[in-house]
Amino acid sequence: MSNARAFRETLGLFPTGVAIVTTCGTDGERIGATVSSFNSVSLDPPLILFSIARNTRAYAAWAAADHYAVNVLPERESELSTRFARSLSDKWEGLAPEAGRGGVPLLREALAWFECRHHARYDGGDHLILVGEVIAHTARSSTQGRPLVFFKGKYRKLDEDSPRPTPSGIEHLLHGW
């Protein structure tokens, strides 16, 4: 097994949520990609980050994007996640996204949206790390479902019926805020 493959499998032991990031190119074309590299950075100012592979077809659009959105997917949207993970499919077929700030498409299927404006970009090796300032966020009702999770190379579901107790008073230690 190659070192890169072994590294990827080891990373796969850390479960992540699944999101679709969206933006528009300079020609107005809607652009989207599935990511699991999404996380919070700061509460004040509100910052998030995700990364885009440098070899993606829409890399130049992402590198120049002034606005973008992170659409957090519910577990029932694994097919949508797979569609946006592929580079040569018509990702937007049959979808009617809402227009967000800066004109970015917001997926109606999402559990939550984070609408962002560009804050910073960093070299991340074979990826570009995009840091966005959250200018609006929307959380759907909890009745909309649970988040889609990726673990060990497969989509997974949370077992909401078996929560683990968390000692009180340590939330700031677990989440860094």
Automatic annotation (TrEMBL):
Keyword match Endoplasmic reticulum: no
Entries under Gene3D superfamilies matching the protein: Electron Transport, Fmn-binding Protein, Chain A
Species assigned in the record: Xanthobacter dioxanivorans
Pfam families: Flavin_Reduct
Keyword set includes Oxidoreductase: yes
Keywords assigned: Oxidoreductase
InterPro entries: Flavin_Rdtase-like_dom, NADH-dep_flavin_reductase, Split_barrel_FMN-bd
Domain Flavin reductase like: 11-157
Family recorded in the similarity comment: Belongs to the non-flavoprotein flavin reductase family.
MF terms in GO: FMN binding; riboflavin reductase (NADPH) activity
Protein name: Flavin reductase family protein
